[in-house]
Amino acid sequence: MRKKLHHIRTSKKSFIKTWAGKLHLWFGLSIGLIVFIVSITGALYVFKDEVQNLLRKDYHFHAESGIETKKTLPLRVLEEKVNEQTGETFPLHWVDIPLDKSKTYKFYYYENNPEAWNYFDEFVIYKTAYVNPFTGKVLSVQDEKNGFFNIVKFIHWSFLLKSEWGKYIVGIPVFIFLFMLISGIILWWPKNKKARKQRFWFHWKNIKSWRRKNYDLHSIVGFYASFLALIAAITGLFYSFLFIQSLMYFLFSGGNTAYPDYSHFKTTAPKEMRNAGTLDKIAAKVEELYPTVSAYSIDFGHPHIDDHEHPNYEVFVKQLDYSYYINHQIIFDENSGEMLQNRPHQTKDFGQKYVAANYDIHVGAILGIWGKILAFIVSLACASLPVTGFLVWWGRRNKVKRTPA
């Protein structure tokens, strides 16, 4: 009876491993190249802020003297000066304002064409102007659209196809990659304790076969990377599929099925109340409420090519310089400049905090520079898996059969 039960259990395990192996192989051969590209671009993008800050260090600070006794120019005056110097025909979209006034303001030209089918047509313009807020002098204009990191980002995000559906071209293979990570753990899992000791590290002292070394690279690297790779994949899928967003919010909010709705906070003051000082009134209120934050963003409120409706006028306030997960939102009446709602980070439920943290978890910034280093290593490990996996298949397929002597 015991032998029979043991045989049934062994058969079940064998059946699961057999089919896990087949699906792992078929899926691996079909999406391996996509996983490789997504992983490599993810690794390249991890240190985007650090590299870009180093390359642009000469105009992150304006070096204006005596700023303690000077006032920054009104935002509408700065807008006019920036447009005069850049000569752009498109309106400025928004400005990032640092609380440290020794830093430059970043003014953005950004237009999105919803009718386009690829990245280069979809982004009509995407430029950043670094500006001295005391004089209005433009220190540099950077073309983000054609910049290395933005192109890398959108290869990673949509293969440079239209974002609306390109994200699924990436998202579906990544979803399959989730199964491959799980099936890889099933295939790796040893039969007994003796076999387990050999699976956790490389034992190559007496191994000369490249096939065995490559197999160990695939299985051992895959095992150690798989748990963090699952996190990277799920947080990436968050941006591809609405149901993943809904599921994650549901789980982390403790069962809430709908994200809080703030659309009832709307501008009610007449347009006649809006004047050249409205944005400055809003900016002053933000800095009064949050004097210790890193920066905040203000939209200039012009119509744009995509011209989508915003439910209200919201200002995004970023607490930390290196990440986004701690942030605050303030809703204003865009005509009168009066505050309608203040939503500090600490008042949000855990689901809202997770939504805000998802990007930082994805790129590792949630743990600072060490988290980014870890994300970089995991991305490279994920990129290696399709390569070593293909070589495992190729080696078995082309294994030289020994002829008997």
How would you portray this structure in words?
The chain has helices spanning 2-46, 48-55, 75-86, 119-122, 148-158, 163-188, 193-199, 210-237, 242-252, 278-289, 350-363, 368-397; strands at 94-98, 105-112, 123-131, 138-143, 295-299, 313-318, 327-332, 339-343. The chain is built from 12 helices and 8 strands. Residues 5-9 have low confidence and may be disordered. The relative contact order is 0.13. An 8-stranded antiparallel sheet has the order 4-3-2-1-5-6-7-8. Helix 5 crosses helix 6. The protein is an alpha+beta fold. It starts with a helix and ends in an 8-residue tail after the last helix.
List the helices and strands and how they pair.
Layout: H1 2-46, H2 48-55, H3 75-86, E1 94-98, E2 105-112, H4 119-122, E3 123-131, E4 138-143, H5 148-158, H6 163-188, H7 193-199, H8 210-237, H9 242-252, H10 278-289, E5 295-299, E6 313-318, E7 327-332, E8 339-343, H11 350-363, H12 368-397
Antiparallel strand pairs: 1-2, 1-5, 2-3, 3-4, 5-6, 6-7, 7-8
- What best-fitting shape do the alpha-carbon axes yield? elongated
Strand order of the largest sheet: 4-3-2-1-5-6-7-8
**Largest sheet at a glance?**
8 strands, antiparallel
Based on CA atoms alone, the radius of gyration comes out at 27 Å
Give the terminus-to-terminus CA distance.
45 Å
Query: What is the beta-strand fraction?
Result: 5-15%
State the share of residues found in helices, binned by percent: 40-55%
Average of the residue pLDDT scores: 90
Extended strand count:
8
The string of secondary-structure elements, in order, is HHHEEHEEHHHHHHEEEEHH
